[in-house]
Amino acid sequence: MWWDTHLHLDALGDEGPALMAAAAARGVTHLLAIGVDPRRPALLRGALPATMQVRYAVGLHPQELPSLTDDDVHEAFIALDERLAAGGDIVAVGECGVDARAGIGDTRERRERQLGVFRRHLQVARRVGLPLVLHGVRRDGVLLDVIDADIAAHGPLPGAVWHGYSGSADTMRLAVKRGISISIGFMALDVRARRLQEAIPLIPDHALLLETDAPPLPPERLLDVAEAVARLRGQSLATVQGISGDNAARLFGR
Length: 254
Hints:
TIM Barrel
């Protein structure tokens, strides 16, 4: 089975059903659909192919925060609790984390607010026993510091995946040591991403996941990501399929 462990079905628009049909034709069978605000369902505009199974992660993306009031954030966490209590196909909390990009986390106030919201996600994940989907952009050390403090206070994480990883081998090792799986996406296709190219061969088999983060990368190109990962790791495509699929199933269910 091919698992795409991070994509945004609701962001695919009216072309979503056709895009997912193309992915199914290339053998993609399992999806983790990511929500960026618990008040908005992350649903495809149309039907998925019958061969596909979809599960959901629900959380408040850091890029949403600049446009939200404190009351909005409060309402979002109420919606998160309600959706988790309803059960169903929600298997993870997030995506959540820290992001220092312009307009998202480029001021001290915005960065501090991100940290508070991130810590609330950690609390929720521990309470319900679900893995976290982590978003970290240009604040890798801060993300790990928050996780370290949480582990020191409460013990091992209930599972986590660092989505769209693009960092160094050293940071990857630190993350894996903390029980975080590493999801590789479209940056694996960029030969200029030298740090990532060096890190991919060193990811332990038990920690490797694949994703498209669609959009911008079409869901059918999950196999292109897998081929790049296989080449860098010196493994067969079937081996990468097997280990990444088993890891996703362990985290998110078969």
